[in-house]
Design a protein that fits this description.
Layout lengths: L18 H6 L20 H12 L10 H8 L5 H29 L6 H28 L3 H5 L1 H4 L1 H14 L12 H19 L3 H12 L4 H31 L6 H26 L8 H18 L15 H5 L6 H4 L14
Helix pairs in contact: 2-5, 2-11, 4-5, 4-8, 4-9, 4-10, 4-12, 5-11, 9-11, 9-12, 10-11, 10-12, 12-13
The structure holds fe (ii) ion (2 copies).
The site of one fe (ii) ion has 5 residues, from α11.
């Protein structure tokens, strides 16, 4: 295996690999990588396709107006319980996007040896910074006290432990000198990819739901619009990780043992329980049509989609209790379209599909 920083060690030799040999030996992990990002021809065309769709989703936070949100917040149009739900959802979502910038660049990307996947991941990291920035634009525009949002985990035990579990699960492989060369370490890396998949495909979903539900009731419309942009980005991030996980499985089937499958299934189901607890802690006994029961049903519905997308048996058989969400997200949490080969058309700077 040639590692990125080994390519130019030693003297020139004409007996290096040909381009065709290079492409043919390309792997998601543990492949040959000369570090020069020679994307064409593609070994993993889906990664470039996702990258191109990411480009079509361009947006910046300044496109969103928070004027109405500011007026509504100041005029007390949200009651105390609604305000608390909004703040908790915002606090965790903003914490998680910040964490993703770091974990994707420090824990995941260094081990990827396919340049087209690195290309898509780099764009994903940029989009996470965009999300981090958009929360700060929103905080400034609505006039929230930044400490109230960002620092909630320092005052709130539930949020502190959620962040702690998230961080610990991701940074398990962030050990100096860690490589994916052994089968055991490759399994740990695959687990880290599944952890990231859980972050983006499960842990945002109570927050997204709460913001979109406010918007459905004409409350905090700017925030709702911003979340629609973020949700659309996250949808492609989830798709990218489904493909990364499934392609690693194809390229190295020895990693996909019954034990690994059982561990990943349990990780996803534990995450669903954790997200249900979190969602309920945000809404209390219920706000604006969201109840603890329907939050559970909804997250179980998401859980089955996530399990099945990476080839694991579904666990819940719950249906989506919030059909109105499809209208606000174009059903974009479902990767089905992608796997059927039809890619939805996105438009730059607009939420009109
Ligand atoms: Fe994000
Ligand atoms: Fe993301």
């Amino acid at each position: 295996m040639t590692r990125r920083n080994d390519s130019f060690k030693g003297d020139f030799s004409e007996h290096r690999m040909t381009n065709a040999e290079l492409i043919n030996s390309r792997r998601v992990i543990n492949g040959v990588d000369d570090g020069l990002m020679q994307v064409s021809p593609l070994k993993h065309p889906w990664a470039r396709e996702i990258y191109k769709n990411m480009q079509r989703n361009n947006w910046v936070a300044e496109e969103v107006s928070f004027q109405k949100d500011k007026e509504q917040w100041e005029a007390g149009e949200l009651n105390e319980q609604e305000k608390a739900a909004f703040m908790r959802a915002l606090a965790f979502a903003s914490n998680l996007d910040g964490l993703l910038v770091n974990s994707l660049s420090e824990v995941i990307k260094p081990h990827i040896t396919s340049p087209e996947i690195s290309l898509a991941l780099s764009r994903q990291i940029y989009e996470e910074t965009l999300h981090v920035d958009s929360y700060s634009v929103m905080i400034e525009a609505v006039g929230f006290e930044p400490e109230e949002v960002y620092g909630l985990y320092r005052r709130d035990k539930g949020l502190y432990y959620k962040n702690k579990r998230v961080l610990e699960s991701m940074y398990k492989i962030a050990i100096p000198g860690f490589t994916t060369e052994s089968v055991e370490n490759s399994k740990l890396f695959l687990e880290a990819c599944t952890t990231n998949y859980i972050f983006e495909g499960i842990f945002f979903y109570s927050a997204f739901l709460i913001f979109l539900n406010f918007g459905r009731h004409n409350k905090m419309p700017g925030s709702k619009e911003m979340i629609q942009f973020i949700n659309r980005d996250e949808d492609l991030h989830v798709m990218l990780f489904v493909k990364i996980i499934n392609t690693i499985k194809e390229e190295a089937p020895e990693l996909w043992t019954p034990e690994v499958r059982a561990t990943f299934r349990k990780n996803i189901m534990d995450a669903i329980e954790m997200e249900i607890d979190w969602g309920i802690s945000c809404i209390g006994d219920g706000i604006l049509g969201l109840t603890p029961q329907t939050i559970r049903q909804y997250l179980e519905f998401i859980g089955d989609i996530r399990l099945q997308a990476i080839g694991l048996e579904k666990a819940y058989n719950s249906s989506n209790p919030y059909l109105w969400l499809d209208e606000l997200t174009q059903g974009n949490m479902i990767e089905v379209n992608f796997f059927e080969g039809t890619v939805r058309e996105y438009q730059s700077g607009s939420l009109e599909w």
